[in-house]
Amino acid sequence: MSTPISNVNDITTLGDKSSVHEAAVAEIVGLIRAKYEDEGNRNFAIGKRAFEHAQWQKGNFPGTYLNGDFEALMNRIRDDVRLWVPIKAESIQIGQWVRCHVLRELVRENAGDDVANTLTHFEYKCIIGKALHFTVKDLEGSLTECWLDMVKAVASDRAKGLRVSREDFENRVALTIRAADASRMAKLDPVKAAAKLASDAVKADAAKVAKSTKDITAAVDTAIASGAVSPEGALAILEGVAKHHGKPLVAASIGFDPATCTVEDCEKLAAAMFGAGKLVEMKALAAKLAKGIATLEKAAAKVAVKAEKVAA
Fold it and tell me: How far apart are CA 80 and CA 87, in angstroms?
């Protein structure tokens, strides 16, 4: 932890201003992290103790412990807290803290301490409604399908030093929900599940194509509108990329291509020029073509004469 700055106007002795700023931000972030991490640890501890007492209640009143007794205990604790602390009832979520504790212990049983302790209290709270099946009458919990794999994946990434942000975590939750739904559907109706999987794959491919098309269109539009790239330049870029991937553009895509044209393409070009009344251009093209034809025919004749001499 860096030394606090006693006089914000006297920072020249602390070195570079940027370093001072970054050190101060890191210190404040550290204090805030410690606050929430400590709060999470306290919530786990409260959940554990409340769960243990609920188990004691159930064990000491066999046959009379009902579904509502668990929530009644949680509410009693909550209401007693509010006698001492001016806090909203919804802020004291003991039932959820119990479930977070139960879920973490299930992960611990199945994957070990390192995996169980990787997720924060906030992250366990995000998934308890999906990853945990908890019965308040029996006070028993079980992991639902696919969720242990997600927790293991997060723990593995963090063990490698990779950052798993809140957004990334929420994306993994969404993917796991879909995977769990697909798994349940596959068990109930394998044929329907396979059809949905194929349909989802088609939709995903279509979405990728649409996004790529949108991104390319936006980039080209911006470049041409700003004058950074000409239409010809944009076409040249596209043509170069296509050739790099072994997929040269066809005439239908770029118009008449002298390097790849066929007799049919030439006939279409001539018909199009005639239809457009391009008399001057047709004469210029004809003159150039006549010279080119003559040159190529002379070259071909020379080759034929040489071939005859060699044969003789």
Answer: 11
pTM (two decimals): 0.58
Amino acid residing at 130: K
Q: Per the structure block, which two tokens stand in for 182? A: 């697909």
User: Which run of H or of E encompasses 143?
Assistant: strand 140-143
pLDDT at 278 exceeding the cut of 80 = yes
Q: Which of 48, 98, 94 shows the shortest CA–CA distance to 74? A: 94
Identity (one letter) of the amino acid at 212?
S
- For residue 235 the two structure tokens come to 């076409």
The percent of residues above 90 in pLDDT, for the chain, comes to 46
Taking residues 230-239, report their average pLDDT: 79
Mean pLDDT for all residues in the chain: 85
Confidence of residue 1 (pLDDT cuts 50, 70, 90): very low
User: Residue 139 — left, alpha, or beta (φ > 0 → left; ψ -120 to 50 → alpha)?
Assistant: left
Distance CA 163, CA 154 (A): 9
* CA 312 centroid distance within chain: 74
- The residue among 70, 74, 75 whose CA lies nearest residue 135 is 70
- Structure tokens belonging to residue 279: 């008399």
Neighbour tally for 272: CB within 10 Å: 12
Query: What sign for the dihedral angle of Cα 113, 29, 42, 119?
Result: negative
Exposure on the CB side of residue 145, measured as CA atoms within 13 A:
10
Q: How many Cα atoms within 13 Å fall on the side-chain side of residue 220?
A: 15
Over residues 195-222, the mean pLDDT reads 78
Cα(59)–Cα(187) distance, integer angstroms: 37
CA distance 203 to 130: 26
